[in-house]
Amino acid sequence: MTLQADNVQSTLQEIESREAEFWDTATSHLTDDDLQTEKVNPDQDALDRSRVALLGRLVGKRVLDVGCGSGLWSVFMASKGAEVWAVDISPQSVALTKRRAELNGVSTNINAAVMSAVEMDFPSGFFDLVHGQDIIHHLDATSFGKEVARVLKPTGRAVFSENCANNPLLMFARNNLCGRWGIPKWSSDDEYPLTRARLAQFGRFFKHTDVEYPSFLFFHYLNAKFFRYESDLVNRLVGGADRAIWAYLPFLRQYSYRQIICCRNPLLLPKDEPTEANPDGVAPHGEKGFLVALIALLALGVILWRLKPGEPAGHATRIDERSE
Ligand SMILES: C[S@@+](CC[C@H](N)C(=O)[O-])C[C@H]1O[C@@H](n2cnc3c(N)ncnc32)[C@H](O)[C@@H]1O
Q1: Is residue 94 part of a domain?
Q2: Which atom of ligand 1 is the closest one to the Cα of 117?
Q3: Cα 43 to ligand 1 centre (Å)
Q4: 4, part of any domain
Q5: Residues of the chain with pLDDT > 90: what percent?
Q6: For residue 265, which phi and psi values (nearest 5 degrees)?
Q7: Any ligand 1 atom below 6 A from CB of 139
Q8: Is 24 exposed, middle or buried (0-12, 13-18, 19+ CB in 10 A)?
């Protein structure tokens, strides 16, 4: 039993040291110029706008930015009057957060430290708000959910921007194509896009968990991976296609690659204890809806392609007949 517990602990340490090394390297190219010019952009970006709205008024709030990276959101929240505590497992990321705070004149409002997100050095009920971008999917969702619920005040909330594993086509591309044939892979080996089951494990530690899809990002990522935004025409086409799907086919929004999560009212005892029959403690959720919708869309596309506006269905046949 003890041996097993030791093994689990050493595995967690190994994962954390691999993550620290990966993110130390991934952020090493950032210059002072990057740290000064890169900004959160709620006016242009629907994901940023939705997150800013969920964070609410920040003046005087004690906020934790967990997995802060190079501190983009820590600095944004500090500039809106929050007292920010920023933590990350990567020493280089924490150093960059401090530097970004200095360059943007908010270093007195930010305390940044190297710390594990699943075992934080803060007292229980310390924070009004927890914020995180792309962090849940790097961690064990149960340990992290428990820790976030612990450090939040009973009336507190946690707001996350995360990737999303709901779209089977994107997951197929990620699992089989990225990192091969010159297609870039940006992720570390220890992360996987956030599945519904893992989000539910995290959400068991909160009374309410809401998910939003403020924009539909699907073709955008295919473009990033396969064309690297190099063609203006492709950029415009994919932007239009994603926006049209978000606007006219709202049932497909859940298959976007990005999601915004808001968890409210932390619980001392998690709800829906997992059982042997259901180890995740959540209803199994297939993605059949996506495939049915995709087939329906393809069928609709074929019908529209065959039927030109203002012409009867037999038009093509009649042209063939005339030319014979
Ligand atoms: C995808 S990056 C996101 C960084 C930042 N939030 C952003 O959006 O720019 C994931 C971050 O999580 C951090 N991380 C990974 N595992 C962690 C852990 N166990 N504790 C704290 N931070 C961790 C990594 O070092 C990295 O900075």
Answers
A1: yes
A2: 20
A3: 25
A4: no
A5: 65
A6: 55, 85
A7: yes
A8: middle
Residue 284 is predicted with a pLDDT of 46
Average pLDDT over the chain, rounded to whole?
86
Total tally of structural domains belonging to the chain: 1
Best of 23, 146, 160 for a ligand 1 pocket test (most atoms within 8 Å of beta carbon)? 23
- Joined tokens for residue 131: 């914020």
Q: Does 69 sit in the ligand 1 pocket, CB within 6 Å? A: yes
Task: Report the separation in Å between the CA atom of 139 and the middle of ligand 1, taken as the mean of its atom positions.
Answer: 9
We report the CATH number of the domain holding residue 292 as 3.40.50.150
Which range, of 134-148, 240-254, 270-284, averages the lowest pLDDT?
A: 270-284
Asked if pLDDT for residue 51 goes beyond 80, the answer is: yes
pTM: 0.84
CA of 19 to the centre of ligand 1 (A): 8
- Sequence-distant (≥ 6) Cβ neighbours of residue 49 within 8 angstroms: 42, 43, 214
Write out the residue range of the structural domain in which residue 90 sits.
15-321
For ligand 1, whether the C-beta of 162 sits within 6 Å is: no
Query: Does residue 5 lie within any of the structural domains?
Result: no
pLDDT in tens, 168-192: 998 888 888 777 777 777 777 888 9
Cross-strand bridge partners of residue 114 = 88
Q: Please work out whether the CB of residue 27 comes within 6 Å of at least one atom of ligand 1.
A: no
Query: Does residue 77 form part of some domain?
Result: yes
